[in-house]
Records
---
Amino acid sequence: MTIVHNLGFPRIGARRELKFALESYWKGDSSRDALKQLGAELRQRHWQDQAGLDLVPVGDFAFYDQVLDMSFTLGNLPQRVSGFRGEQLDNYFRVARGRSAHAAEAGHGCCDGVAAGEMTKWFDTNYHYIVPELSAASAFALDPTRLLEQLAEAAAQGVKAKPVIIGPLTYLALGKAKDHSDKLALLPQLVAVYVQLLDTLAAHGVEWVQIDEPILVTELDAAWRQAFTLAYERFKPCRVKLLVASYFGSLLENRALAAGLPVAGLHIDAINGADDIAPLLALLPADSVLSLGVINGRNIWKTDLAAVLDWLEPLAARLGERLWIAPSCSLLHVPVDLDSELTLDAELASWLAFALQKLDELRVLAGALRGGRASVRDELAANQAALAARRASPRVNKPAVRQAIARIDASLGQRKSPYPVRAARQAALLNLPLYPTTTIGSFPQTAEIRRARSAYKVGTLDAAAYTVAMREEIARSVREQEALGLDVLVHGEAERNDMVEYFGEQLDGYAFSQFGWVQSYGSRCVKPPILFGDISRPKAMTVAWIGYAQSLTSKPMKGMLTGPVTILNWSFVRDDQPRSDSCKQLALAIRAEVQDLEQAGVRVIQIDEAALREGLPLRKAEWRHYLDWAVESFRITANGVDDATQIHTHMCYSEFNDIIASIASMDADVITIETSRSDMELLDAFDHFNYPNQIGPGVYDIHSPNIPSEADIVHLMQRAAERIPAQRLWINPDCGLKTRQWSEVLPALRNMVAAAKTLRARA
Ligand code: GLN
Ligand code: ZN
């Protein structure tokens, strides 16, 4: 009989209960006990939600991050927090969030300030984990308390528990050796602690342990492949059964490695790695469990259950008890419950599945495998009806959009003239000084702006009054920028809640959930909009605001748009066409906006691609393909304008070295990037590539309340000018200023303008 299980459940709560409890605790408004109590309640509720599964994940709950939990389990804490004598949970939050020396002085802490652990993206998801800190001196010591407590809790509730841990190779791979030492040299001692952990779990009656090794879907060199085998050989004597779990992609050349590990079972992502199944059947030992992730844990769409059964039934017949089924990965990456959604229209909702609905789908599949399709006839019929309606819906398929995509040819992505010709025409028209100054788009989102927006949303402020309020904010931004003496102005984005949502709300083919929150890091959640249909732009989206802003000044006003790749990468997207097709539809819609702005007399247009790098596939071999369509989409968006119109793009903090050729082929006239923290070293990539167009390297770290001095900025720009000719440099902050206060922004920008003047005088 097929075993049904889950790999992990969203921990934040259907109403983001964990978020609010954490923030209240951090503020000092509630007790540690109350927070712990809420954690226990969430675990209990989520285990109940998963009742009926044969195995339920335990240990996937984390107060902040599962990787940080694992670091505590392994006793791998940064040196700077060792010796802390308070509660473990508080020390855990110190690593997660840091603690400023200032807070310590104010009597909130025990000791000096502590830097937070570095945070980075979990594979190709939008979840961020706290990077394990490693060095040649790292030592590990088992602390199984958290896991054992949760197991005891689960046992008391009659949960069929399967503890979940992160495997040693993935843990090491995700870690960062601050001293650049060889991380694999730590493996023997790390593995020894894992052996203790597995023995401890066995002694507590655990039968199966899920050990996550998602790095199996990435390219591994010989040393890492060998390390895999060595490590898992050491686990052979442990008296628990190990299910090695890979997800987020295909094993490809790692198939034999994964299948050859001396463990009881292997879980693979059968959505992204369907091609692995047939070869694995031949490679796996005859008694090995094969767990197939048949429900997509990364999207919000209903599964085509009949289509899955068509290929799954023969496998079930062949594998019998050896076949397990599950979602493709932890459900951490999807919202909790579709039934919470009261404002989504019924038709669209009928096409969707959030975490709870995905578990229901799994139960239907299991029912069909165990009792035949007839035993779940109604569920399967409802599923088929919903999918058929989605496929046939005129809201999804718009022939006009399809025809426009089919008509795309190379000319659409081509500017009329090469950069030097354009640059000369733009210079003549814009007449900017050396080291022109600008900002990245947003100005502080003040309490008044937020209040007006929410009043407008609930209907206590009408459209006309809302427009007046936003225009006042725009006018304020323009006044301040003129007083500062900036060269290229922005309207300040007061009317935008979010750089993706704002455009999604105005495009046909997009929908928005009320509670579709997904954890991004710690207590932070995002609510990605749902791209469900062919994309079109019913009318201009930004022209009225930008036009108004331009009417207030004789300085050039920069039009501000979000690019197609970023909109795509920050949305839940369709599963019925390639991402590249959705991206090109977005590109055509934003292209039309670019052209409308140009028509309205806007001479400088910025198209933000903050998330371009985020979309890179896990395997380097697949980068080329992604970068090709991503760059093409940007070019389609940007390049329908006259030579005299200056196109800017912006990217947040990124490594540029390995994608610089693609950045250059985007061919924006100006690119602004986040560089201030790197002391301009990020510009090396541009320097070595001989990047030909203009660059605005950020000189103001907008993530910090610190105000850079004129001297700081002059220093940074001198560092920049060592790498890029001054004639091609702009001066600007790292990113948008929406999270800062006016009281910080004004002195910082004043110093920026002063620095520009100093540099011009020296030139
Ligand atoms: N134009 C946007 C802003 O200034 C860019 C934000 C971003 O890059 N994340 O807010
Ligand atoms: Zn940015």
---
Amino acid sequence: QEAKLDRNTYRFYTPAMHERAVTRIQMINYLRQAVDRRELSLHFQPQLDVSGKLVGAEALLRWQHPVLGSVNPDEFIPVAEETGLIIPIGTWVIRKACETLAAWQKRGLNIPVSVNISPRQLKDVKLQRTVISSLREHGLHPSLLHLEITENSLVENKEGLISRLQNLSDIGLKFSIDDFGTGYSSLSYLKRLPIAEVKIDRSFVIDLPFDTQNTALVQSIISMVRGLGLMVVAEGVDSLEQLNFLRQNGCHIIQGFYHSEPLSHDHFLTFAEDYTSAS
Ligand code: C2E
Ligand code: MG
Ligand code: MG
Ligand code: MG
């Protein structure tokens, strides 16, 4: 059974219910040990402004398991979320991101890191303490840490959530709306909540400027977000045509394979050296 779970044949949603149940349970057991066994790492995807200057990085989780191989975040993050394992895993991510920020600061690389915060983490009352203590441990200014949240996290916006976001924002943390345009929330949170940045989902960036619907949607999103005085990031930018369109239409920050894939820490440092000396 286990032999089937190698990198190439691994399927989480198999049609056979039995097999699916087994693999799910195995996945959960493996995931439970992932932090302690040091199987997790962070990769960093560069974010550049439209003049080509490096202005930030998104931390993206990677899981390398001895049997499963490298597991895609789209496969294990939902499982971590459903089981609550996202809380210890997410804590590891925040701590590692702060450790990395401190290393960058020492090298004079003065850019923020964005970390993804899942809906379950956002509901967790301990998130605030984790974030503050991780920043403090390394003497980091809170504005160096950006928290990416999704619209769906905000659907059942309880009063407690709003005040917790406000507290973190008051001490200087920045919030980004990730995958903007794909959630079920109303837009009113953009004025109610302390949001600094909106990330246009990759699905709207595909085929720019050739897809007329995406062209209209992206132009509207950029003008709305700019009108609110917030920053606009486009994700999934993988061609020069997309980049030029986004630049001409006022998008502030570009993230995607066109500039770089998510990079290991060492590769990110090399990338950063090139892009800070070039500009
Ligand atoms: P996301 O936050 O929207 O991250 C962007 C995803 O798009 C990343 O996938 C990135 O590799 C991919 N991407 C970036 N540029 C391009 C491009 O030009 N073309 C294409 N095709 N893809 C591009 P990744 O790393 O597989 O992560 C997938 C999702 O998993 C993330 O989506 C995020 O929702 C989640 N995730 C990753 N790391 C974490 C984490 O530490 N915590 C939580 N809660 N979720 C995470
Ligand atoms: Mg993200
Ligand atoms: Mg996204
Ligand atoms: Mg996404």
---
Amino acid sequence: RAKAAGGNRFEFADAEADARAITRHGLTNALPAALERGEFFIEYQPLVHMHDGSVHGAEALVRWSHPQYGVLGPDRFIPLAERTGLIVPLGRWVLEESVRQARNWQRQHGGATLRVNVNLSPTQLHHPGLVADTVRVLESSGLAPGSLCLEVTESALIGADDELLEPLRRLAALGVDIALDDFGTGYSNLANLRRLPVSVLKLDRSFTQGMQQQPANPVDVKIVEGIVALAHSLELAVTVEGVETGAQAAQLRALGCDTAQGWYYARPGAPDRIHALSLSDAVPTPS
Ligand code: C2E
Ligand code: MG
Ligand code: MG
Ligand code: MG
């Protein structure tokens, strides 16, 4: 596949694109067997109350321990699983596993209030079994619905009609929390917020990044102030993601954010660490 003069660069780019396509293809084909063989695992990242640094719960983040490529992050395979529909059984497994884990934390000394957040992709949202699966998983584990939070991205709900919102409304009515993930990146229709059965806004990492400059990016500060005010007036809690430094944490706490998540507090890790952190004062609080 020869290219015109000066094509070396293009050939190289082509070869890279080919390699990526082959990998993508291979990964896609390997997904179902990987699920059967138990190659997926979940890391948990603490969600921390900003006012005192105590651990509120954790977000479940799936990884694939690939026999050839090592540990792959969700960005490498969730889109593939979405396209092939494997996200439905994979997502069901993540839900089951995380809910069981949360119940385990709660049974351990000091873990009674720990909760778990689980991500839902658009295909899962459209899947007719969502409510029944969730109810079954909660019942068989004994976890209270209020200890589960399902995270849905804002973009997945853009233009959502009542039919799409119905399952989320039913889950919310059962007491499951619904969080709007990556909030502020889509075309946030703020008026639309009232229609959505959500109780938490998860402010996207890009706003957190704006808090890193000294002084913080004044536009981002204004936006976060506005979002927090709006959220609180609608009785929604605000979680911030991607907090990497004490400066960001202090700024976001001053702006009234309720809970936070990020490397500053802890990286995603093994489930036992969540319980250990909930018992210790090891989580840093900005002064
Ligand atoms: P998300 O739900 O917005 O999750 C937060 C992402 O930010 C995670 O990436 C987390 O590891 C990363 N993160 C946390 N703290 C920091 C920080 O301080 N700095 C930086 N730079 N990053 C931080 P991860 O684990 O790679 O997950 C990426 C996305 O994959 C998630 O974004 C979520 O949308 C999706 N995902 C993860 N697990 C699942 C799952 O079980 N099901 C579905 N459908 N999607 C999932
Ligand atoms: Mg999330
Ligand atoms: Mg997020
Ligand atoms: Mg994100």
